[in-house]
Amino acid sequence: MYGLIEHKEVINELLARYGVKFGIYKNNRFNERLFPFDTIPRIIPKNEFAFLEKGLIQRVEALNCFLRDIYSNKFIIRDGIIPEEFVYTSVGFLPACEGIRPPKDIFNHISGIDLVQGKDMKWYVLEDNLRIPSGASYPMIARELCRRASPDTFQNNSVFDNRSYGNLLKEVFDYVNTDGINVILTPGRYNSAFFEHSYLAEKTGAVFAMPQDLFVEGNYLYYSEYSGEKKKVGTLYRRISDEYIDPMTFYPDSLLGVPHLIDAYRAGNVAVVNAPGNGVADDKGIYYFVPKMIEYYLHEDPILSNAQTYLPYYENDRKYVLENLENLVIKDVSESGGYGVAFGNTMSASDLERFRELIKKEPRRFIAQEVIDFQDLKVLSDDNKQVDRKADLRAFVLYGEEIKVWRSGLTRFSQSADSLVVNSSQGGGFKDTWVLSR
After folding, report:
1. Residue 228, CB half-sphere, CA atoms under 13 Å: how many?
2. Are strands 37-44 and 376-380 parallel, antiparallel or unpaired?
3. What is d(CA 132, CA 277) in angstroms, rounded to the nearest whole number?
4. CA distance 270 to 37
5. Residue 224 and residue 209: Cα distance in Å, rounded?
6. CA atoms of 180 and 350, how far apart (whole Å)
């Protein structure tokens, strides 16, 4: 590890040369910047990761059961586990996806589960990201460049090799493929994670495509080569949000989508990774019910814990939230990327009162959580001193023939000493995540 600290400048120069960037939209402007990397890795012991692995597999399986159920029979609503209104008012629920059975019945092929470790050493799940979770490419290339700069570090430490992610992802593509080529669809270089799109195409051997390269004919999706030859697409890993992927079904003015893509998908002629409509399962309000999903679908006790969460939708929870707002974290369920998060202990009296009125008026719009005193990790400051910063972990779970957890992950940290927000879109940096192999 000390070898990496000594090679900090070399590694960051290599990251800059390779264009490892994460764009940020701020004040309606796109600002592309190098994704800040810290060379001190997060280290997770083998037995601790085995516990996480078991819990993550359980959680992802239950979430897939929920998605399959909610777009078909809706037994979980019928049996009163989740209120009907809670599902249908979710911005992530897409009526256009009703009745669609994706290949192999897999909806959440790639799940990004965000966790923090409390000062009590217990792991808590903060969010489930099931739409188009990003971030796996950054620890992959960081590890590759760290290995190049300081090979002795990895010869002298027992760390699982994280280069397996490309193969794991390809296995998922191939398993759900409907007899065609694998394609990664990007909206273009002005997407915040464009680096990742191209990098994963290289690592999986998938065709890297722009929207204009694809078209639907006879309910089949095709890729058009420069020569004019067309190739049938069997798996489409789309990195475009649901509302933009098909202007004939969703947002009609979208220039990023492929007309009639949903028709081909509904006909079972292409696998779309991740499935359209997954947003209902990573709604921050639905998060509250995931432990109940595990019990309902799998008949098991949840292995991983949610943060203590309150739903103002319920009268008792609403009363508690309104009386204790200054001690809670308030989250707008329709926001993501660290947006729509407010800490009661930083609000003025007028802001607290404004939030109370909003919660009374729109109780479905918010959840509230107890503040978790989660761990700090050591980060190198600009003058190479080790300082403490809050950090989370995005674990990546891939669902193909089996559910597999990548033995690595994206550790994100806040660059501000007094901030609990670590999201990349909020200016956070990242670390490599070492899972020890013995």
Report:
1. 0
2. unpaired
3. 11
4. 37
5. 9
6. 58
Residue 30's closest CA among 189, 242, 241?
A: 189
DSSP three-state, residue 177? coil
Q: What is the DSSP string of 232-274?
A: EEEEEEE-S-GGGS-TTTS-TT-SSS-TTHHHHHHTTSSEEES
Both tokens assigned to 104:
């192999």
| pTM summary value | 0.93
8 Å CB contact between 185 and 236: yes
Characterize 98-108 residue by residue with b for buried, 16 or more Cβ atoms within 10 angstroms of its Cβ, and e for exposed. eebebbbebbb
392: three-class secondary structure by DSSP: strand
Q: 26 phi and psi, to 5 degrees?
A: -145, 130
Give the containing element (helix H, strand E) for 379.
strand 376-380
DSSP state for residue 415 in the 8-state scheme:
S
pLDDT tens by residue, 401-412:
999 999 999 999
User: In this predicted model, what pLDDT tens digit does every residue of 48-59 receive, in sequence order?
Assistant: 999 999 999 999
**Rounded CA separation 168/173 (Å):** 9
Residue with tokens 């509302």: 243
CA 319 to chain centre: 32
State how far the Cα of 62 lies from the Cα of 172, in Å rounded to an integer. 18
- Reduced to 3 states, what is the DSSP secondary structure of residue 230? strand
CB 135 within 8 A of CB 394: yes
DSSP alpha helices (H): ranges in 269-348? 284-287, 290-293, 315-323
**Which segment, 154-163, 189-198, 317-326, is predicted with the most confidence on average?**
317-326
Question: 379-411 in b/e burial notation, b at 16+ Cβ within 10 A?
Answer: beeeeeeeeebbbbbbbbbbbbeebbbbbbbbb
| 89/365 Cα distance (integer angstroms) | 10
pLDDT in the model for residue 29: 60
Helix 165-176 and helix 194-204: axis angle, to 10°? 80
Amino acid at 3: G
Distances in Å between the Cα of 12 and the Cα atoms of 68, 319, 347, 384, 397 are 43, 50, 37, 13, 28
Instruction: Tell me what pLDDT residue 419 has.
Output: 66
Rg (the chain; Cα; Å): 22
Backbone angles phi, psi at 197, to 5 degrees: -55, -50
